[in-house]
Automatic annotation (TrEMBL):
GO biological process: glycoprotein metabolic process
Keyword Lipid metabolism listed: no
Subcellular location: Membrane
This protein's encoding gene: MNN4_0
Membrane topology type: Single-pass membrane protein
PANTHER family, A to Z: FUKUTIN-RELATED, RIBITOL-5-PHOSPHATE TRANSFERASE FKTN
Signal peptide segment: 1-18
Organism, scientific name: Lachnellula cervina
Annotated protein name in UniProt: Protein MNN4
Keyword Transmembrane helix (UniProt): yes
Domain LicD/FKTN/FKRP nucleotidyltransferase: 83-191, 202-239
Pfam family name, one: LicD
Keywords: Membrane, Signal, Transmembrane, Transmembrane helix
InterPro entries: FKTN/MNN4/W02B3.4-1 (IPR009644), LicD/FKTN/FKRP_NTP_transf (IPR007074)
Residue ranges that the Swiss-Prot or TrEMBL entry lists as coiled coil: none
Length: 296
């Protein structure tokens, strides 16, 4: 009887003293590059490659001349289509600075910036999202060329706060030929009860209603455009007064006689680099605001 009880007891203890089972094999899932919350994606890998929409990037970076040509037609098409459809939009940030100097894009820029109100942004999302638009331009030799553009609205426009910072760009106007684009951001009174009249985007840029409106009619890249009412105040607050007077930037020199930013050859840049700033001549450009006032 006792042996029977002992045998039963030992059989119950066997699982306890059995060799432990090997741990389960760890399953490592490959992370898809689009698993994050970011809507717009770029090839990445360099500063230049962060300015292409990955869906329309063909693997080859554009040349200097191709980039300038692409950006000029991007903004001309965007402003023309929006005006035809009576959609309010205005140029902003570095694009606005280019307008201030000579009514053109800065030739070293890789993308352009425009703004709309949050209500306009909502309307675009409901009515024009993922629409393509053809724009025909006339070249200097008189021939014409038609290009195609995509208007893509970020579905995260319903959130007007920065969040994780992945979706500060609300929409894009994209050249489907090479992937270069215009960034479109919306402005809204995010705290109307505590900060009435203060408009902001998801990237912490803030504007007063009286600095934005009434928008000024002007011309940019030879097409009708709108700029904020207090453009000088906005540019000074964002870039400092120095940005309105310096005549050397990103390997380009401002030529007041031509009213153009001219790209310097490497030899010229090397020679300038050896001239101490203390003995460089004072820069006093005959340009900027005085030129733009003639446009307004």
């Amino acid at each position: 009887m006792k042996l029977t009880h002992l045998f039963a007891l030992s059989s119950l203890l066997l699982p306890v003293f059995a060799a432990p089972e090997p741990p389960p094999t760890e399953v490592i899932e490959e992370r898809n590059e689009y698993d994050d919350n970011k809507y717009f994606h770029e090839p990445g890998g360099s500063d230049q490659l962060s300015h292409y929409d990955i869906r329309h990037f063909n693997g080859e970076e554009v040349t200097y001349d191709e980039r300038v040509d692409t950006l000029q037609h991007l903004v001309r098409s965007y402003l023309s289509v929006f005006r035809e459809k009576n959609i309010e939009t205005w140029i902003a940030h570095g694009t606005l600075l280019g307008w201030w100097w000579n009514g053109k894009i800065m030739p070293w820029d890789w993308d352009l910036d425009v703004q709309v109100s949050a209500s306009t942004l909502t309307w675009l999302g409901e009515n024009l999202n993922m629409t393509t638009h053809n724009y025909t331009s006339v070249k200097e030799d008189g021939t014409s060329e038609t290009r195609e553009y995509l208007l893509d609205i970020n579905p995260n426009i319903v959130e007007r706060i920065r969040g994780d910072g992945q979706n500060v760009i609300d929409a894009r106007w994209i050249d489907v030929h090479n992937g270069l684009f215009i960034d479109i951001t919306g402005l809204a009174e995010t705290n109307p009860s505590t900060q009435p009249g203060i408009w902001s985007c998801k990237n912490f840029h803030r504007y007063r209603t009286r600095d934005l409106y009434p928008l000024r009619e002007t011309v940019f890249e030879n097409v009708p455009a709108l700029v904020p009412y207090s453009f000088d105040r906005i540019l000074t607050e964002e870039y400092s007064a120095r940005a309105l007077t310096k005549t050397m930037h990103e390997g380009h020199r401002w030529m007041p006689e031509q009213k153009e930013w001219i790209k310097l050859e490497q030899q010229q840049l090397d020679r300038r680099a050896h001239v101490p700033r203390s003995i460089q001549g004072e820069e006093n450009p005959k340009s900027g605001l005085r030129n733009l006032l003639r446009v307004l």
